[in-house]
Amino acid sequence: MSFRTTRARLGIAAVAALAAGTLAEGASPAAASASSGHVSGAGSYYDDFGDEGTLSTSSYSSSNATCLWQIILLAEGAKETDGTAFDMSDIDGHFGPNTREATKSLQKTWGLGVDGMVGPQTFGAADTQWNASTRSGELEFRSTGTTDATKYKLRYHGAKYYFDLYRTASGNYRFLHKDAWHYASYTSNTCD
Length: 192
Hints:
This protein is 34% helix and 15% strand. The protein has 5 helices and 5 strands. The protein is globular and about 45 Å long. The N and C termini lie far apart (66 Å). The N terminus is likely disordered.
């Protein structure tokens, strides 16, 4: 093997390693968050939702993560397919036509790209989209709990309603629906 061939191969290997490292650094944190199985966060709660997996009619379409999103739609007073407000009967953890239409409605209200899917920009706006006139779109710290399951009590302020939720000691979110606490899981649906 000549020096020139070895050098070329080493150069190609270095470029490949650099490209792999760049891709690993640029990999979407959403994939990592969804692969953990739960809507979760760490550090400041103001940026917990911006790295979540995409919710849509074809992605995590039957899950507690979708159920949490539907509760946000209810709290914001988003409009569903027939133009009426998204209501409690629409909260079932299934991302169907009403959830898609209500998501589009909320995306338009928040000035986001309107595609009916809950990607990092849309989900992320739920914890940072403070609207002073409607006092909505924000997570607020309420208290520190006494158990791992109730480590941080937070409140989501919507344009119409607010609701409380917990971030556990391990970072997983829990919410109340139909008198039961549910983990915001991507892999199960206990909301219907």
